[in-house]
Amino acid sequence: MSQCLRLAALTCAAIALAVPSMAKDKSPFPKTVREQIGVNIHFTTPKPGEMAMLEAGGFHWARMDFGWEATERTKGVYDFHAYDGLMAELKRRHMQALFILDYRNPAYGPGGAPPYDDEGRTAFARWAAAAAKHFQGQGILWELWNEPNGKWFWPNPNAADYSKLALAADKAIREACPREILIGPALATIELPYLEGCFQAGCLQYWDGVSVHPYRRKDPESVGEDYEKVRALIAKYAPPDKTIPILSGEWGYSVAWNGFDEERQGKYLARELLFNMESGVPLSIWYDWHDDGADPAEGEHHFGTVRNELHPDRTPIYDPKPAYTAAKTLTGVLGDYRFDHKIAAGDATTDHMLEFRKKKDRGYAVWTTSEALHPVTLPIPAGVYTIHDWLGEHRITLTSDKSGLPLTLSDTPQYIVRGTAGRR
Fold first, then answer.
1. Pairing, β 284-286 against β 374-378
2. Model confidence over 309-336: pLDDT tens digits?
3. CATH superfamily membership of 34-336
4. What is the pLDDT of residues 159-195, one digit of tens each?
5. Where do the structural domains in the chain lie, given as residue ranges?
């Protein structure tokens, strides 16, 4: 999806092996809750106070276009200084970059169309390798194009043409800096025939993750069946020595959609991130950082975690929406934990109870897709626990005995950690 402002800029990736495969026990993808969460941005130069707000929101990754035209205005001359600046800002905030190698360059091909001939593909691959080489070793994920199955970014889209371009770039990057991480194809929605075309062409020989954009107007948990179909396709075509995860490379909900408001957007953000972890998806990028406009009827303007209006003389510089607060609360309570497993309790069709671990400590996230509140007993060790609501506004202390922890589930997540924190 996202037919938004896209032509800006992007950069590199890190830690793939010297051959186009990755051993099953050598996954480069993050493990802690905080390290698994990111957001799309549309800038290389942040506003004063913007990076501090991103960091405070718990966003570890920034996904950004690394535009071909913007960085090769003259054939064979590469200018990456804007991304050098962005990388410096990200490092100051202990964040990482997911850079999308994408879009057209009018210096190659008629009308600046995506490269369809050998000359254009060779030029794109040479530029991609130069970018990866320039930023190598900095922990960046390189993504090959953005939504190539959508006409807004690739006229006459088809997997064969895209795969030729992706493979040319993949091979060039592997030759120039073999330890960078490569992912693709960043599909708009989950289009299985297109994915299979990429896999049949050999892209999985080079990719370390398969990125998709699972946009929908239904509950986030409805993506589960789609993930299983993608996982089956990966298993069918992946080299035998590779474990290739699914990545949720872009996905959000617009407040301007019929039936949505800021509260629903916020609780869906939390549930989307948590369900991705439950589904074995190690990276989730929320679309979008801030609203792209203020037109109440324009869906593309209202995916943000914060509102559009900038307040340069105030802290924070943007007004947070519940989505921002939901991300901040999730990472604030469970950010240093790692997802361990789903707990079997309650109604298996509607209730979600996840266990997280941090050394010997355990934490939990619980919610239901049912519209009705209902009580459950969580089968967790005896002790005293603090329960945080999804916006960090309320917390209570409850005691679990040998039968478990009694709790009422709602469609907004609650976070549970051992210990007392009083009431508020």
1. unpaired
2. 999 999 999 999 999 999 999 999 999 9
3. Glycosidases (3.20.20.80)
4. 999 999 999 999 999 999 999 999 999 999 999 999 9
5. 34-336, 340-418
Task: For the domain made up of 340-418, give the CATH fold.
Answer: Immunoglobulin-like (2.60.40)
Q: 62 forms bridges with which residues in the sheet?
A: 39, 97
Helix or strand (DSSP H, E) at 400: strand 395-400
CA separation, residue 149 to residues 164, 172, 187, 193, 356 (Å): 14, 23, 6, 11, 36
Predicted confidence (pLDDT) per residue in 50-93, tens digit: 999 999 999 999 999 999 999 999 999 999 999 999 999 999 99
Q: What is the pLDDT of residues 108-134, one digit of tens each?
A: 876 667 888 899 999 999 999 999 999
Counted residue by residue, the chain has a size of: 424
Q: What is the C-alpha to C-alpha distance for residues 395 and 200, in angstroms, rounded to an integer?
A: 51
Is the backbone peptide bond immediately before 185 cis, with ω within 30 degrees of 0?
Answer: yes
Q: 340-418: same fold as 34-336?
A: no
- Give pLDDT, residue 19: 30
Task: Tell me the pTM.
Answer: 0.92
How far apart are the C-alpha atoms of 262 and 254, rounded to whole Å?
A: 9
**Residue corresponding to tokens 């708009």:** 188
How does DSSP assign 102-147, residue by residue?
E---TTSSGGGPPP-SHHHHHHHHHHHHHHHHHHTTS-PEEEE-S-
List of residues 6+ apart from 278 with CB closer than 8 A:
339, 342, 352, 354
Distance (Å, rounded) from C-alpha 2 to C-alpha 258? 17
Measured CA to CA, the distance from residue 254 to residue 150 in angstroms comes to 19
